Amino acid sequence: MAAPQTRQLSSLDKVEMSTHVNDTEKNQVQEPADNEFDYSQRGQWLRAAVLGANDGLVSVASLMMGVGSVKEDVKAMIVAGFAGLVAGACSMAIGEFVSVYTQRDVEIAQMKREKQKRESENVDGNDKAGDQKEQLPNPGLAAAASALAFSVGAVLPLLAAAFIRDHKVRMAVVVAVATMALMVFGALGSLLGGTPVVKSSARVLVGGLMAMAITFGLTKLIGSGGMQS
To answer: TM segments (predicted)?
Structure first.
């Protein structure tokens, strides 16, 4: 009678062990799914894209509002806005190129110091050095991305005002388009960055409207007397 009991206990033990192994494998499979995405990986390019688009939109819209406050001619607004687009895109590209190139030089200098330290300690770090070189920032790519983002934001108020003859309607349309675009840019940045949508959109919207209002008011105050046709 003892032998059958021993075999029965062994079978139960096998079932329990098999169940435990299956549960462990399920947990291992489900574990990566529970990990949240690291939004900080998007931080660098997201910052440049959102900043460039917002810069282009606010700069050109404010410039057009300022010119429109003292000049009702649609051509003057469009020429001023286009000049702002070209100048701003070039400025963003050059600034980003210089900034990223400086960062690249700093990282390369640090890599050289680490390499010298490893060589003095007779430590093989070729694999690590290769990975670091692949992760170095690209100044040209950063410059192109900043210029493109600025241009995308800047072209919106230009297109909004290009085909409207009535001055007051044109000014209202520029403000309306800028308002909607600022809300979209703020929401897009918050969704990609994993931050609250309403708070981000409100912050971007208020800042952009303040810039346009200040530009409009100061330009009208200073230049209305001498530029009215």
So the answer is: 76-94, 141-164, 171-192, 204-223
